[in-house]
Write a structure and sequence with these properties.
Number of domains: 2
CATH class of the largest domain: Alpha Beta
Largest sheet: 5 strands, parallel
Structural class: alpha/beta
Bound molecules: magnesium ion
Shape: globular
Distance between the termini: 9 Å
Strand order of the largest sheet: 2-1-11-12-13
CATH superfamily of the largest domain: HAD superfamily/HAD-like
Helix content: 25-40%
CATH topology of the largest domain: Rossmann fold
């Protein structure tokens, strides 16, 4: 049997407050030793994830902007297709272009006052996300999704309905709502990658790790779901599927580490 791990970043592999993955280093090393691909699958942008993938030490494909695109670094022949970029990385686009998302939000905010990343400068994004202005510049490089905050949450349902009428959708991450293409999800990207890896690996089993509503479909699409609890101890409830669900014993990177180590030991 072979494994593939898909992980959300914020609140899952990365601690919610300080974005550290320090506590997950033992499990990350164990995955590397066993040659298990670790796919980062997040609402973050390509600019952000390219940097993080290097720090985390994974060189397999990663999924950005809530399933908006799969980026394939050089040296991943199992995954075919995708347009080649200047550095040899390939990109399979699954979402709708940012210009269409912005056009919708600019029209929608007349009725539902809201602010998207495109309306904020890097300093404002940095303050809302508790990270540096340099990190915020990378977070603003959106291609397939627009994070936003709505002034009156009661308007969210109407806004989501208007989005669906335009072939778009609204999903919720840890800190923001995100405008995306209808049907765009981490689960779709997971299925594309599982199918590709399954061609060259025997009895492939997928593990997905996440903490938020935008992880739900991905967690339910994987063979094993690892739910990371929030710092207050509550956690995302999954539907009663046929697959295994594990709730990590701690929030953030420490919970990620404990759950993955336990899974690897039982494999
Ligand atoms: Mg998260």
């Amino acid at each position: 049997m072979s494994w593939i791990v898909f992980t959300d970043l914020d609140g899952s592999l990365l601690d919610e407050a300080d974005y550290s993955f320090e506590a997950a280093r033992p499990a990350l090393a164990a995955l590397r030793e066993r040659g298990i691909p670790l796919v980062l699958i997040t609402s973050k942008t390509h600019a952000e994830v390219a940097l993080l993938a290097g720090e985390i030490g994974t060189s397999v494909p990663y999924v950005v902007e809530n399933g908006g695109a799969i980026y394939i670094p050089p040296g991943n022949p199992e995954i075919e297709g995708g347009g080649a970029l200047a550095d040899g990385t390939r990109r399979i686009a699954l979402g709708r272009p940012q210009s269409e998302l912005r056009a919708f939000l600019v029209a929608a905010r007349e009725r539902w006052p809201l602010r998207g990343f495109g309306d904020m400068d890097a300093a404002e994004v940095a303050a809302l996300c508790d990270f540096s202005v340099e990190a915020a510049v990378l977070a603003k490089e959106r291609e397939f999704s627009e994070p936003f905050r709505i002034d009156d949450p009661a308007g969210l349902e109407g806004l989501a309905a208007a989005a669906r009428a335009e072939g778009l959708d609204v999903t919720r991450g840890g800190r923001f709502h995100h405008l995306i293409a209808a049907g765009q999800s981490k689960a779709v990207a997971l299925r594309v990658l599982v199918e590709a890896y399954a061609r060259s690996r025997d009895a492939l089993r997928s593990i997905a790790v996440g903490d938020s509503p935008n992880d739900r479909a991905m967690l339910e699409a994987a063979d094993v779901a690892v739910v990371i609890p929030r710092p207050d101890g509550t956690h995302l409830e999954l539907g009663s599927g046929a697959h295994d669900v594990i709730v990590a014993p701690h929030p953030g990177a420490a919970g990620w580490n404990a759950a993955l180590i336990r899974l690897l030991e039982s494999a």
